[in-house]
Write a structure and sequence with these properties.
Helix content: 40-55%
CATH class: Alpha Beta
Shape: globular
Largest sheet: 7 strands, parallel
Number of strands: 9
Radius of gyration: 18 Å
Number of helices: 9
Strand content: 15-25%
Distance between the termini: 40 Å
Bound molecules: NADP nicotinamide-adenine-dinucleotide phosphate
Number of domains: 1
């Protein structure tokens, strides 16, 4: 990892990743909507760690801009971490197409659009690593968040296919499946501390997976066992549960 592109760099997990990667002397490209919000983060990281930090404007909801966005990056990254995501309001999404579309576009369509471009470049260069932050929500549709869950399921399947395609080119693809992470996304939601990762812990686990050549990693590891149980509940029982 020499130059790391973080897509969705204003999220707390992304900021924790940026801090920890800067401490490892990685150069950073922080891509976000209204990226000038990150000016203070840029100078702080550059001064504290003596690294180059670039800000870039990126909107997952604008696939038409993704090719130009990537082509404008100089130098090109050798690692891309796709952090952006949108939980949305599921109750609203059930009756409001625009909300459903934003959830699907933010978590799936936008990710496919930008990662298609990055994957082609990494494949040509025969190097690189792509990290996608998906979710355990993608493992089984639940009545409380199946629009978001289905978009993340699509993203997980996309990353699996990308990993399969790029293996022979020496490009690694890592799927990250967080359970709960204590960020803006969970604001106002009460979750058990045991099942909830602080952004710094999540970032450390993601970086460890990047260094250890993992393919799929859960944040926190306990979620691997929880999801094993959830996936194995027979459908005739699952459909009656209030989840
Ligand atoms: N928190 C959890 O419990 C949890 C659990 C499972 C998976 N995840 C996933 O983990 C990742 C990080 O989420 P988080 O918890 O850090 O949530 P967060 O604090 O809400 O951050 C989401 C980030 O995505 C960015 N984003 C949303 N739509 C975007 C768009 N159209 N273009 C560019 N950036 C956009 C947001 O940017 P703005 O600042 O511009 O809004 C924000 O930086 C997401 O993919 C999320 O789905 C989170």
């Amino acid at each position: 990892m020499k130059t790391v592109l973080i897509l969705g760099a204003s999220s707390e997990v992304a900021l924790a990743l940026a801090n920890q990667l800067a401490a490892k002397s990685c150069e950073l490209i922080l891509a976000a909507r209204n990226s000038d919000r990150l000016a203070a983060v840029k100078s702080d990281l550059a001064i504290r760690f003596g690294i180059n930090v670039t800000l870039a404007e990126f909107d997952a909801l604008r696939p038409d801009t993704h090719k130009n966005f990537y082509e404008s990056l100089e130098p090109k990254p050798d690692t891309a971490i796709c952090v952006f995501g949108y939980l949305g309001d599921h109750t609203k999404a059930m009756v409001d197409w625009q909300e459903s579309a934003t959830i699907v576009m933010s978590n799936y369509v936008g990710a496919v659009s930008i990662l298609n471009v990055i994957a082609n470049d990494f494949e040509n260069r025969k190097e690189g690593m792509i990290v996608g932050i998906s979710s355990v929500a993608g493992e089984r549709g639940r009545q409380s968040n199946y629009v978001y869950g289905s978009a993340k399921a699509g993203f997980t399947a996309y990353l699996s296919g990308l990993r399969n395609r790029l293996f022979k080119s020496g490009v690694r693809v890592i799927t990250v499946k967080p359970g709960f992470m204590k960020t803006r996304m969970l604001a106002g939601m009460k979750t058990s501390a045991f099942l909830t990762a602080q952004p710094e812990r999540a970032a450390a686990l993601i970086i460890r997976a990047m260094q250890r050549k993992k393919d799929v990693v859960y944040v926190l590891p306990v979620w691997k066992w929880i999801m094993l149980i959830i996936r194995n509940i027979p459908e005739f029982t699952f459909k009656k549960l209030k989840l």
